[in-house]
Amino acid sequence: MHFYVITLFPEAFDSYLNESIIGRAIKEKRIKVTFVNPRMFVSGKKYKRVWPDGNVSRIVDDRPFGGGPGMIIRAEPVLKAVESIAKKIAKKENRKTKIIHFSPSGTKFTTSYAKATVKKYTDVVMLCGRYEGIDARVAKILKAEDVSIGDYVLTGGELPAMVLIDSMARQIPGVLGTFDSLEEERVSSSEFYTRPEVLEWKKKKYAVPPVLLSGDHKKIEAWKMEHNKKEP
Ligand code: ADE
Question: Which domains does the chain show, CATH number per domain?
């Protein structure tokens, strides 16, 4: 699975994607994440200025038609960014691309959405808005699906993109490793305990459920079933 993230803030992903399971999945080439910054596709005198000292400012946003607070990311740099990705994908064979645009009012993202997307697609392009959002024509032109990660409003699409990458990556064979990949088939619980057997905290004692220390596998499985983790 190849994820393409269109974002004005690619650095926001650095530490998370380089850590632990996702970092390993990238190193082992089970997933690939490519960032494309629409700022690099800004053109025209009005938006791209070269200063006498050689510095270049690239203005990616503009004021909303019809008025209102905040700025809107212009369509052109985003469309050009997606076009540059589409050209790369077109060079490969047997690819199936999905384009996602993040919006708090979109289709609710769930584990089953993640599973279905991993099954059906080889490339997922994610459009991360900032400020008041991206010019609405972009999603229409690209036939992108609006996707929400929950009923709350965030300041941009970067956190939703990280959520999708994490959740989809763990559906890809080998990403969780041999031990964890068995997890879905195993009876699993939402309660886990480790040493010590009795935890002392502020003069109170907290013991591990005795059944987990009993060594009786049937009873342990039954206890885990009772405390089963629900997959959304
Ligand atoms: N952009 C802002 N809030 C969002 C949310 N909850 N889900 C997806 N994209 C968003």
Answer: 2-178 (3.40.1280.10), 186-226 (no CATH)
